[in-house]
Amino acid sequence: MLGTNWLRRFLENRRDREEPDWNAPCALPERLRRPLGRSLSHFQLGESGGGEFLLANAESVAAERGDPDYPRALALFVAEENDHARLLARLVERYGATLTREHWTHFAFHHLRHAAGLDFELQVLVIAEMIGNAYYETLGAHLDDPPLAQAIERILRDESLHCQFHLDRLHLALDARAVRARRLWALAFVGLFEAALAVAWLDHRGALRAAGARRGEFLARARRWRRGFLGELGLGRPAVLPTPGDLRKPGTVPRLSQKTG
To answer: I want to staple 140 with a disulfide (CB 3.0 to 4.6 A). Which of 15, 179, 207, 247 is the partner?
Structure first.
């Protein structure tokens, strides 16, 4: 069962989670720290939810599909997201910024993902995660700060797993649909992804440009994640989800993973 498999994988992922070296000196210039901290604070806000709506819907889905471990696996997913919020909060503090309590992008995202059931919420979540992955990859490719690199590596490792988790769930939701319905779903997914990507660039372009990144670089990384996700769903050109590549080299294309079972 999906839940049993992912419960095991999430429990395995909890092992050997080293803490970033928060005491390492920061060599980033002052002109970069505050915009970077503000930008990270917006991602921190998005990662800090308790997942109540998600978990409540998971119970009914688990009962419908006879998969009692799915809510437990989903709870471990939410716990990892909350751990990312903790790491991001430390980075925000490191760069001299303050945590964001409210932001219009978070408000819109929060209400959009609650619009229609568990599967739609997972669709919105995975879009946000893939765009976030592109953001972290881009920062890691341009900035040299050990705690930032360590936190990015950990977050990307988890998020690669999360994308596969949502992929498996959406496979179950889409497999029973007709070919035309699946294609329409893919078109809607791309439209929602591109809208979210445009908003993300507007929100974070200051920090990304200050880090030395270009708009095209960020968009290319995000779209690589999108193509991999849809490719593994059989809804686009053959592709697989990327895994974190060499984050120290600007413009590096992430390595491609082997599809997991």
So the answer is: 247
Neighbouring C-beta atoms of residue 184, cutoff 10 Å: 12
Identify which of 73, 62, 101 has the alpha carbon closest to the alpha carbon of residue 14: 73
Q: Look-up: residue for tokens 């568990």?
A: 118
248 domain-assigned = no
* Out of 41-45, 202-206, 233-237, least confident range: 233-237
Contacts of 173 (CB under 8 A, 6+ apart): 119
Tokens of 90: 């430390």
Would you say residue 57 has pLDDT above 90?
Answer: no
pTM of this structure: 0.86
Decide if 100 contacts 44 (C-beta within 8 A): yes
Instruction: Work out the number of other CB atoms within 10 angstroms of the CB of residue 32.
Output: 17
Question: Domain tally for the chain?
Answer: 1
Q: Counting beta carbons within 10 angstroms of the beta carbon of residue 17, is it exposed (0 to 12), middle (13 to 18) or buried (19 or more)?
A: exposed
Residue 17 falls inside a structural domain: no
Q: Per DSSP, what are the bridge partners of residue 256? A: 242
Report the C-alpha gap between 213 and 205 in whole angstroms.
Answer: 9
Is 259 part of any domain?
no
15-29 confidence digits (pLDDT tens): 888 999 999 999 999
Give the total residue count for the chain. 261
Per DSSP, the three-state class of 28 is coil
Q: Which stretches of the chain are DSSP H helices?
A: 2-13, 30-47, 52-65, 70-94, 104-113, 117-142, 146-175, 179-210, 215-232
Q: Which domain holds residue 192?
A: 2-12+27-232
CATH of the domain at 133: 1.20.1260
